[in-house]
Design a protein that fits this description.
alpha/beta, four-stranded antiparallel sheet
């Protein structure tokens, strides 16, 4: 990231990114590169702008009327904040999985099929639903109850259903905002194992408060902190093993050893 160990194809990158909510600058001057088909974790204390940065990568911040973005986010050679770019199309290519599982109040089948259907999918829907549920490691648990409500599933199953729903519209990048923070340890481990499988096909960017999760589950890690004005900024980023064993910045070392945050 930046030049910190990232080689090969880059899926998405930010250049001098600033995000404001009204007059408040939530994050400042974020320049980061995210390698294709790798898992990048964003870590840092609460309030340092990790989720704001994550949402800027598929223009979810646009949904807040007070939000304003300066700088660039480049995806496929284009700034996604260019006036000609359709944010809905960006969100189809760059999917999002939220902190709390949020299945639709529909059947398991319709939860997966819905996004593809509204995007005009013309293929075999049964096959797409099965493939997406298989990729989300959920098919064997739900194949005999596809017509039951998605809300009938356990929390961990609901989160995997939301991942299947994201996969079904064939994104290239999956953003995950603390996807296991509401789950028990067993369900958390299932999601982490799933993420490792998904990186074979997708670029994954995950926000986590869990140091062990970042160390276990990611290839690269970016550490954020906030300044005296409470604006989030990037402290450093590198391969995960290097950041956790040999951080370049004293703040990073203090954070990962639990001395603040």
């Amino acid at each position: 990231m930046s030049s910190n160990g990232v080689s090969g194809p880059i899926a998405i990158e930010s250049h001098n990114l600033h995000v404001y909510y009204g007059d408040f600058r939530a994050v400042k001057n974020i320049s980061l590169k995210f390698p294709s088909e790798k898992i990048t974790a964003l870590i840092g204390p609460s309030g340092c702008g990790k989720s704001t940065v994550l949402r800027s990568f598929n223009r979810m911040n646009d949904l807040y009327s007070v939000a304003r973005v300066e700088g660039e986010v480049t995806y496929r050679g284009t700034n996604i904040y260019d006036a000609k770019i359709d944010p809905v199309e960006i969100r189809r290519r760059i999917g999002m999985v939220f902190q709390k599982p949020n299945p639709f109040p529909k059947t398991i089948y319709e939860n997966v099929a819905w996004g593809a259907r509204i995007n005009g999918y013309q293929g075999d829907m049964d096959q797409l639903v099965e493939e997406s549920l298989r990729q989300a490691a959920l098919w064997d648990e739900v194949k005999d109850k596809l017509n039951q409500s998605g809300l009938s599933l356990s929390g961990g199953q609901q989160q995997r259903l939301c991942i299947a729903r994201t996969i079904a519209v064939k994104p290239e990048i999956i953003l995950m905002d603390e996807p296991t923070s509401a789950l028990d340890p067993v369900a958390t481990l299932r999601i982490e194992e799933l993420i490792q499988e998904l990186k074979k096909k997708y670029t994954i960017i995950i926000v986590t408060h869990n140091m062990q999760q970042a160390a276990r589950a990611s290839d690269f890690t970016a550490f954020f902190n906030m300044d005296s004005d409470r604006a989030g900024y990037l402290v450093e980023s590198s391969e995960t093993n290097e950041l956790f064993t040999n951080p370049k910045n004293e703040l990073t070392e203090q954070y990962i050893t639990g001395r603040f945050g």
